[in-house]
Design goal:
about 170 residues; alpha+beta; PH-domain like; disordered C terminus
């Protein structure tokens, strides 16, 4: 089981938790990405609430966030996701859609759903692979599908087979 109970909803940027909205607005302003509302294709928010655990486990693991807010924003070129935890503070990640791959995941053990991302977010020195945990609501699947479609549109898969940089079959053959 996941350590958190999660709920996800599709929303407008103005409906995001205040810390999430402010972090995204600051990122848009700092990187001159245009008007936040005009550029947004899709936005969703997940609230993750820590499940009850016994005091010994809590003591061994140290203080962890009781509540985590996660916002995910999609534009035609960017995927931006930001977390705000009551202990960990605010952390924003952004990736150009041409530099990432995403898949919907829905696991039964632990019971969890969300978006699995691999690629190169802004500032990463090497590729990453991680997950954005989301709730069981239909909004999760819709948001994930929109991200996956946007990535495919920004970076369509090659239909031609290549071996060592040459078309399959050697030079001059396709």
């Amino acid at each position: 089981m996941s350590d958190y109970n999660r709920t996800t909803r599709e929303c407008s940027v103005s409906q995001l938790h205040a810390e999430l909205r402010q972090a995204i607005q600051n990122y848009f302003t700092e990187h001159r990405l245009g008007s936040l509302e005009a550029e947004t294709l899709m936005c969703c928010e997940t609230i993750s609430e820590k499940k009850s655990i016994n005091k010994l486990v809590s003591w061994l693991n140290g203080k962890s966030d009781a509540t985590i807010y996660t916002g995910m924003l999609l534009t035609s070129e960017w995927l931006i996701w930001v977390h705000h935890g009551d202990q960990s503070g605010t952390r924003l990640n952004a990736a150009n859609l041409k530099l990432i791959h995403a898949e919907f995941y829905n696991s039964r053990i632990p019971k969890d759903a969300g978006l699995q991302i691999s690629g190169f977010p802004v500032g990463a020195k090497e590729g990453i692979r991680g997950q954005i945990g989301m709730g069981p609501e239909m909004a999760t699947q819709k948001c994930c599908e929109e991200v996956i479609k946007a990535i495919a549109k920004a970076n369509p898969p090659s239909t031609q087979k290549h071996i060592f940089g040459l078309p399959f079959g050697g030079p001059g053959k396709t």
